[in-house]
Amino acid sequence: MFQYRTVLAQLRRGASEREIARGHYMGRAKLAALRKLADERGWLDTGTPLPEDAQIAAALGEPKQASSTISTLEDHRERIAGWLDQGVNGATILAALRRNHGYQGSYSSVYRMVVSIRGERTPDATVPLSFAPGEAAQVDFGAGPMLMHPAGALRRTWAFVMTLCFSRHQYVEFVWDQTVATWLGCHRRAFEWFAAVPRRLIIDNAKCAIVKACIYDPVVQRAYAECAEGYGFRIEPCPPHDPQKKGIVESGVKYLKGSFLPLRQFRDLADLNAQALGWVMQEAGVRVHGTTRQEPLALFELERTQLQALPPVAPQLGTWHKVSVHRDCHVAHERVLYSAPFTLVGKTLWMRATDTTVFLYQDCQLVATHGRGRRPGERISVRDHLPPAAQQFFAHDRAWCLQQAREVGAACAELIERLLADHILERLRAAQGVLRLRDRFGAVRVEAACARALFHASPYYRTVKTILVSGFDQQPLAGADGAHAHAPGARFARTAQSLFNPDAPRH
Prior knowledge:
By secondary structure, the protein is an alpha+beta fold.
């Protein structure tokens, strides 16, 4: 009614209808009708006060309603309202009406009906949250540009964004995946970027952080819980399907996509991250934020003192995995094999993998520790984890054989050296067999047998064993007169002359 009172005041001052129409208060036809009504009611008399809004409204009567037609979906209004309550979208509603109710109309009719139904409902009220300095930060992932992966394929990147709720200062890092290890690494680098830690982190229900999403009792990833304990922050997951609870970082991701990514070119992931951090400090951090109406970096200087200090020693972050011990006494993680005690073959263990170390646990008890492997196919083994027979086999290597042979005697050492010096055949097992004869015959007899085998130019395991079994090692190798004592027909009792003279008589 204020518009009508303004026009009546101008008419009282003698303004023409043309002048009033040029002021865009109302059209000339409507203005002429108002002048006629004012003359009839005496409202143009300057000696009387202007009428109240209620008087003008009563004189004008009820406004005319625009003519409308009844929707072809009016009979389905309640049904459509029920579907909307269930979260069904308009396209699905149209398909169901055509399939089950013979509806032949268009999507526009469905859209108008949906708008009409929603317009009848009271909209949900929202209350923006406020945060004290250093109280909280919000974390989210957003889709980044496509880049050439080092493996040679074009892959999608993902933007990790952590935004401080008070100052709106943020950390941005683009990564190749959203794994638990990547998630934890981004947190560490974000805290180092801020040189401080917020008291609370508000996140969504990504699998890298939350195992089971629930409004009341969410289950946090074991590795992420260790990260929170190490840095001293609390985790606050949003309720399922309610991303508005972290609207600050949602807006930050949207701003990143709209302001940073367009019209830029990136050589690789390192170049992308370098440009992103430069953009945060030179553009995003010095803009006047639409909500706080201040620069994020300026507010961050106030917030910095209220954040928690970084721990003196950075916590060792690690991911947890269930692994099975295979028949070869090893478990596999990222195509690297790590040994476990042979008694655990077939069992399921928990593996904690950090950047430098791998730990294996059974029932909360540490059973193995290894340095982190880097090369696919690498096998990292501890000899004590292998079965006793395998431990013995690997322990009795060439160096061990030579050292044990020297302890037996000079003849044994020479025979073992000859066995291991063979350039055609690997004779490690033969050397091990010769030394194993000590357990049955003793070191003294083995030394004598080796001496006799060398004398006969037959440095072989079979020769030494035959001498020992036959007892020839207990007979003198040569008499004082040079004759050889031996049993008749013994193979290893031939004279030295018979060895080098095929025509010499044999005993």
